[in-house]
């Protein structure tokens, strides 16, 4: 190392060679990056697009950064070429040569006004913000190493905009176009089954989704960076992902509409079978109600002292709606037929259940009488098995109960009391005949049977 010069210690030949090698390698790296940025598809798209919003602002800043980058790169290239020329004068450079190399390679310099148009240096490399504030002014001096840092910052700023815009344009417009094509297919199907705006909620959803996709595509094309989410923390230029939330909502809404249209299409395919099933269910309900009304008359004639519930009439409202459903099918109004069929199917089953419940309620006294008759005959058979069929008291009580049960109108309460008297008398007779233990067992058995 030689004596100190105006820029510090003069470099030795080895130091000068190493500095030249390092700065040449950095020059080649910057040049390669600049050429790659120049050929980047995202940059070409940005240059040819009608940009708006945040993308227009950031691309204007990035273009200015690239302009400064090329200008500074040319200045850097010229200085490095001059240093190469000095080094190539002699195999063993003189002290004056080394001093000049030290000044060129390490020394600070004030850039000419033509190099930086706005007079400012870039922001720190990779922060993605605009240049033009906070950097050193042109009056401050900078070394070749400082120029490399400046160029890296401008390059990162430009690449961040280019890569982010390219990622959004690569991800969203094609997906939006595919979704729009699917939307057109669904709209055609919807129109064929009568699902139209103003007539069906699904038709209104289709209209809104169409408008949303049209607006979304226009916004994505003109302002892609509005749909970019940067990666958290420190990240390389272009770090992040496209924001697809609006697209995803539109896709979900279209899927909901598609399912609704599929349901309407299914109605068109099986509506006749469903209408036939509905007619059958309502017919069975009407027949059940008719049977209940007939049974009510029979109960009133055969059973006394019993409250018999009234039987309602047929479901005329359901029949009218069924007629309307058939008319919807005839006119191919599937979007109206679909919800009506679903409602009718549920209410028709309810109507059949209600008719069956009324029949059961009306015929309950006849069931009670049949149960009492069966119990009376069962005890008579048990008494006969024990050889006591000729017992006068049992015969009298059996005849009394039988007259009540087989007469019309039948008093169910009195008949039940008569059956119980016969049952108890039979148990008492059995106890008396077989003794205490056996009789107690027989009585217990008789009570269990009752």
Features:
mainly alpha, disordered N terminus, 6 strands, two-stranded antiparallel ribbon, two-stranded antiparallel sheet, 12 helices, 3% strand, 4 domains, coiled coil, 450 residues
Concise structural overview:
Helix content is 73%, strand content 3%.
Topology, pairings included?
Elements: E1 4-5, E2 8-9, H1 13-39, H2 41-48, H3 53-87, H4 95-106, H5 144-192, H6 201-222, E3 228-230, E4 240-242, H7 245-302, E5 303-304, H8 316-330, H9 334-362, H10 364-385, H11 392-405, E6 410-411, H12 412-449
Parallel strand pairs: 5-6
Antiparallel strand pairs: 1-2, 3-4
Helix pairs in contact: 1-3, 1-4, 1-5, 2-5, 3-4, 3-5, 5-6, 5-7, 6-7, 7-8, 7-9, 8-9, 10-11, 10-12, 11-12
Characterization of the model:
This protein has a two-stranded antiparallel sheet. A two-stranded antiparallel sheet has the order 3-4. A two-stranded parallel ribbon has the order 5-6. Mean pLDDT is 80; it is low at 1-6, 124-139 and 436-450. The protein has 12 helices and 6 strands. The protein folds into 4 domains: 4-164, no CATH class; 167-230 and 240-267; 268-362; 366-449, no CATH class. Helix 6 runs antiparallel to helix 7 (245-302), helix 8 (316-330) runs antiparallel to helix 9 (334-362) and helix 10 packs across helix 12. Helix content is 73%, strand content 3%. It is mainly alpha-helical and 450 residues long. The radius of gyration is 50 Å and the shape is elongated.
Strand content: under 5%
State the low-pLDDT regions, or none.
1-6, 124-139, 436-450
Q: Oligomerization state of this entry?
A: single chain
- Count of distinct strands: 6
Order of strands in the sheet with most strands: 1-2
Total number of helices: 12
Rounded mean pLDDT score: 80
Shape: elongated
């Amino acid at each position: 190392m030689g004596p100190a010069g105006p820029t510090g210690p003069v470099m030795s030949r080895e130091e000068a060679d190493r500095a030249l090698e390092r700065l040449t390698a950095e020059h080649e790296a910057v040049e390669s990056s600049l050429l790659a940025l120049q050929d980047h598809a995202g940059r070409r798209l940005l240059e040819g697009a009608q940009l708006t919003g945040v993308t227009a602002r950031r691309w204007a800043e990035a273009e200015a950064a690239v302009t400064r980058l090329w200008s500074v790169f040319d200045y850097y290239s010229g200085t490095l070429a001059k240093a190469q020329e000095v080094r190539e004068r002699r195999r063993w450079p003189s002290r004056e040569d080394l001093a000049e190399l030290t000044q060129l390679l390490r020394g600070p310099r004030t850039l000419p006004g033509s190099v930086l148009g706005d007079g400012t240096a870039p922001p720190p490399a990779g922060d993605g913000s605009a240049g033009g504030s906070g950097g050193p002014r042109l009056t401050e001096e900078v070394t070749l190493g400082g120029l490399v840092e400046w160029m890296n910052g401008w390059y990162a700023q430009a690449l961040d905009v280019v890569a982010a815009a390219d990622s959004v344009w690569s991800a969203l417009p094609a997906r939006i176009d595919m979704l729009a094509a699917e939307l057109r297919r669904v709209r055609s199907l919807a129109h064929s089954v009568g699902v139209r705006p103003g007539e069906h909620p699904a038709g209104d959803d289709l209209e809104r989704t169409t408008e949303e996709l049209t607006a979304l595509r226009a916004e994505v094309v003109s302002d892609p960076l509005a749909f970019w989410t940067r990666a958290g923390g420190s990240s390389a230029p272009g770090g992040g992902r496209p924001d697809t939330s609006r697209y995803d909502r539109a896709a979900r809404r279209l899927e909901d509409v598609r399912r609704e249209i599929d349901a309407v299409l299914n109605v068109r395919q099986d509506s006749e079978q469903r209408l036939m099933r509905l007619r059958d269910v309502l017919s069975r309900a009407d027949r059940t109600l008719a049977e209940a009304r007939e049974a009510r008359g029979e109960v009133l004639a055969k059973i006394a002292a019993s409250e018999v519930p009234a039987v309602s009439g047929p479901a005329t409202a359901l029949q009218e709606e069924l007629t309307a459903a058939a008319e919807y099918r005839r006119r191919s109004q599937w979007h109206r037929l679909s919800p009506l069929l679903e409602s009718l199917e549920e209410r028709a089953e309810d109507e059949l259940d209600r008719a069956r419940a009324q029949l059961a309620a009306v015929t309950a006294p006849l069931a009670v009488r049949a149960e009492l008759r069966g119990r009376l005959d069962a005890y008579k058979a048990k008494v006969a098995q024990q050889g006591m069929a000729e017992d006068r008291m049992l015969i009298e009580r059996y005849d009394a109960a039988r007259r009540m049960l087989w007469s019309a109108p039948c008093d169910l309460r009195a008949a039940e009391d008569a059956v119980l008297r016969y049952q108890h008398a039979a148990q008492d007779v059995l106890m008396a005949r077989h003794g205490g233990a056996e009789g107690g067992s027989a009585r217990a058995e008789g009570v269990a049977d009752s």
